[in-house]
Amino acid sequence: MTRCIVWILLLLIGSSVFAQKADFKACSRYSEKNLKSRIHSSSVYPSWIGRTDFFWYYYTTDEGIKYYLVDAGKGKKQELFSIKEFAAKLAELTGKTEDVKNLRLAGFQFEGDNPYRFTFSKYGKSFEYNVKTGELKEFRKEEVKREFERKIYWQNWSPDGKYMVYAYKHNVYLQEKDDTTAFQLTTDGERSYSYSYQRDKDSDKKESAAITWSGNSKVFYCLRQDRRKVEEGWLIDHLAQPRPTLKSYKFPMPGEEHVFTYDLHLFYPEKKLHVKVDIGKYPDQEVKMMLFDFKKYPDYLYFTRKSRTCNQMDLCRVDVNTGEVFEVIHEVCDPHFTEQLFECRILNGGEDIVWWSERSGWGQYYLYNKDGKLKNRVTSGDFVAARIYEMDTTGRSFVFEGYGREESINPEYRLFYRVNFDGSGFTLLTPGDGYHSIDLSKNGKYLVDNYSRVDMAPVAELRDVRGRKIMALEKTDLRLLYETGWKEPKRIKVKAVDGITDLYGVMYQPFKMDSTRGYPVIVNVYPGPQENLVPQAFSIDDNGNETLAQLGFIVVNVGFRGGCLTRGRNFHCFGYGNLRDYALADCKFVVEQLADRYSYIDIDKVGIYGHSGGGFMAAASILTYPDFYKVAVAASGNHDNNIYTKWWGETYHGVKMNDKNVFESKIPTNIELAKNLKGKLLLITGDMDINVHMAHTIRLADALIKANKRFDLMILPGADHGLAGDYYLNLIRYYFVENLMGQKMDNINMGDVD
C-alpha cells in the first residue's frame, strides 16, 4: 500500500514538473516579421544586358548592398564599382552624402549591348558611369519631342488604322477612320451575354469590345460567354455605410442545369459582315482560345473545347476566310484532364503543334503536324513534364518544368529541362537537390538558377543550356538567423496507408525541445487536388507553422495521395469520386508513423487545422476519426461541395448526364458527419467570401446544433477568402494552446503575439 502511494506521488510530481505551458515569447521572437532583418537577399535576379553574355545584379548581405557585373561566357564576376569610391564621386556631383551600406540607384539601365556603360537617376538628375574607367558624370538626355496620339481605352483600332471597334450596350460597333458615324454589327448583345469586357453591368457609355484583330485587318473575332441563366451567389456587406448592402455574383454549382457556355463570332469590316461559327460538339462545353500569332498568320484561329465531364478535349482550327472548323486533335483522358498543367503551343503558323497529354499516365509532350498527325513523342518516362518556360521556334527546342525524374530528389521539387522538338538533346539544366527557379538569358545560351529547400539556404548558380555549371553566384547567409536560435524544420518521408506510396512533407519542432518529454502534434493540411501547398523552398516561417511549433507543438505538413498534381495521374486522381474522404486515412497513418518514429510525439494529443480545402479536411478528419483528433480548426472550409464551384466538384468528383442533357453530381458533405463530433472544433469564415461562401460553415454549424454538439464559431466581418493577419493567426494559436495543452487563455489581447 505504501509503495503504491509513493508511486502515485512520483507520478503526480512528474506530471507537475512536465506540465506544459505555451512559450509565447518564442512564438513572437521567431515570427517572420521579427526575423526578416536577420537575412537579406535570398535570390539573384539577373538583368541581362541586351543579347550579350553579360548581366548585372545587386545583392544585399549584412555588410550592405553590392552591385555585380557577370560575364557568363568567361565565367567571371566583378563588382560594378567600389561602393565607397562610387558614393564619394556621387556626393561630389550632388552635394549629398551617401549611405555606403544602402546605396540604391533608380532607373538603372545599360546602353544597348554595351556592358561597360550604364545610366541611373538620383535626386531628380541623371548620371552616367563608365565601368572600365570609373568615370561618373552627370548625364543630360537629349529631349526628343514626339507627338503621342492619345489612346482612348474603349477604342480598338485595326492594325492598318482604317477601322475602330467598340462596344455599346453590349453590342459591337464598327467605325471607319475619319467617319463620324458607326455601323452596328450585332443586335443580340445583352447583360451577361455581351460582346463587351463590361459583361455583367449595363452602361450608357461606350466600352471596350472583347475582340481581337487579325494582322491583315481583314477580320476580327470574339469568343462570347453566355452567363444569363447561371444562378447567382449572394453576400451581405455588413460593414457598408450607411447601411448593409447586398452583393451578387454569377456562380455555377456542380450538377446545375445552367452553366457558362460559349460561342465564337467572326467579323469582316470591309463587308460589315458578322458570322457565328459552329463550334459545338459537347453539351455545355468549355471553350478556350489558344495562344497563336494571329498578327503574322491571319488566316486561322485555334481553340480547345472540353466536355463538361472533363475527360474529352479537342484542338480545333478555324479558317477565318470560310468559317470552317477542322478538328485537329481529339483526346480522351479519364477521369479528367489536369488543366493546371495542360499546354498546347501552335507554332510556325500551325505547322508544328506541341501538345501535353497524360495518355501514358504521366504528363508528357507530343509533336503533331497541322493536320493532327503525330510526328513524334518529345518527352517520355515515368515523370511529369510540366509547364513550358521558354519556347525556341528557331532552334526547335523548349525549356520546361519537370518533376520526379531524378531518383535521389524529392519528386515534388521543381527542376528544369531542355529538349528538342524531335525528342533529342534531352538535358537536365538544374541538377541541384532542391526547388528551382530560373532566368534565361535573352540570347538563350545561359541561365541563372536559384534553388533551396526548407532545410537548405538559397543558392544561386550560373549555368549554360547544356546544364553545365559555370560558377556559383551567391548563397544566402543565415549566420545572424542561426544566432537567434532559429533552426531549419525537418524534411520527412513517410508511407501512405497502402504501405507502398511515399509521401513527403515537413516537420516543425520547438527550438528548445526536450526530447524526453511528450509534445502535442498538430497537422496542417491542404488536400488539393488542384494544388500542392506543402512547403518546398526555404522560408523563415512557412504557413506560420514554425511559430506555431515554438509554442510547444510538433507541427506536420505532408502531401497526401490525391493532392500533388505533379506526381502523375494515378497519384493525383487517387481521390476521384471521393471528394470528402480521400486524404483522411493517409493523414492519420502519417501521424501514427511519426509517433512510432519519434518518442516525443504524444499520440494522445493530436490536433489538425487548415484553410479552404484544408478547412474542409480538418473538419472531415475530426468528424471521421473523433477518437483520434482531439482539436480541429477549420477555416473557410468548403464543407458542402454541392454548393461549391462547378469546376471543382465536377472535375474532381465527377458529373453524370441524363437523357435531357441535365447534369447531376452528389458529393458527400461534412454536414452528414456532424453527429460524430467528440473533440473541440473551431469554425472560422469571412462573411464576404465569394470563393467558399460562408453558407458552407453555417450549414455545418446548423448540423452540429441539430446534433446537440458543442463547438466554436468565428465570423470575421468584411473578410474574403484569403484570411490573414495577426488576429486570425492568434485565433488558431490560442485555440490549440487552450484545448490541446489545457492552458486557459482568459483576458487575452489577441494582438499579444506579434
From TrEMBL:
It holds the Pfam family Peptidase_S9. Residues 119-456 form the Dipeptidylpeptidase IV N-terminal domain. The keyword Transmembrane does not apply. Keywords: Signal. InterPro entries: AB_hydrolase_fold (IPR029058), Peptidase_S9_cat (IPR001375), Peptidase_S9B_N (IPR002469), Serine_Prot_S9B/DPPIV (IPR050278). The keyword Transmembrane does not apply. Residues 1-19 form the signal peptide. Residues 546-726 form the Peptidase S9 prolyl oligopeptidase catalytic domain. It comes from the Bacteria. Gene3D superfamilies: alpha/beta hydrolase (3.40.50.1820), Dipeptidylpeptidase IV, N-terminal domain (2.140.10.30). This is DPP IV N-terminal domain-containing protein. It comes from Butyricimonas hominis.
